[in-house]
Amino acid sequence: MAEEGSQHEEGPVPVLKWDQGLFEQITRGFRFPLEWDAQYPRQGQTAVDAPPGYITLFEDFFLQGNFRLPATEFLSHILHYYGFHLSQMSPPGMVRVRHFEFLC
């Protein structure tokens, strides 16, 4: 039972709890070009609410998965070979791919 006054969202995908400061730190720190038009999600949005032509990437992807943009051709080839989309990768999986690429 939820506590009174708590904001519990119903639905199959949990509402994102974003920190705009961290979003700005990532977009500046990883040098996102302005033409990428990275967007901070609106309050109450979920990962599936990305506008057409956009994908959702989580902070853990960058901070724990060592993901960088633009992605390398190696990563693109690996994803294509295994039939994965970038959004299906987890941070630990990304670390493994990046480590394998580095070793090659």
TrEMBL record:
Transposase (putative) gypsy type domain residues: 58-104
Pfam family, one: Transposase_28
Name under which the protein is recorded: Transposase (putative) gypsy type domain-containing protein
Natural source organism: Helianthus annuus (Common sunflower)
Phylogenetic classification of the source organism: Eukaryota, Viridiplantae, Streptophyta, Embryophyta, Tracheophyta
